Amino acid sequence: MKKLISIVLSILPIVANAQEEPAIPFVACVEETGEIFRGTAFGADAGPLNAVSENGVSCEGEWKRLPLGLGVASFTCDDGRTGTTIYHYFDTATGTAIGDGSLQDGSPTRFWSGYRLEDYFKTKDPSERERMACQPEQMLLS
Q1: Going from the N-terminus, what domains does the chain have, and what CATH number goes with each?
Q2: Res 142: pLDDT
């Protein structure tokens, strides 16, 4: 249990090398539409984040670690949408934080953050990948 708590405490951002202001890449998917966002979260315990969708929608917000090691992020997009996500799982093999959230209209979203996102998605079972609204290959294109 202590090991699990220790792992969860390091959920977001995942810092490979201790830096003053780490920049952690993330991808997000709006589950109902398959819209993909790619962005960056900054800071070690809290900080700004920004993302741009494949449709050109820009979002900005803030994230922070919570006392139990979970992470929360809130954001506002230039098309008027707002949302929140909770990072609740940490994949130790790849250093990827995974979260679920929603837009203000209730549309579910999923988020993945870390330096080794490609490695994380490679470990997913093909049948699980087929059920995802956004395909990893599309999400990881820069």
Answers
A1: 2-139 (2.40.128)
A2: 52
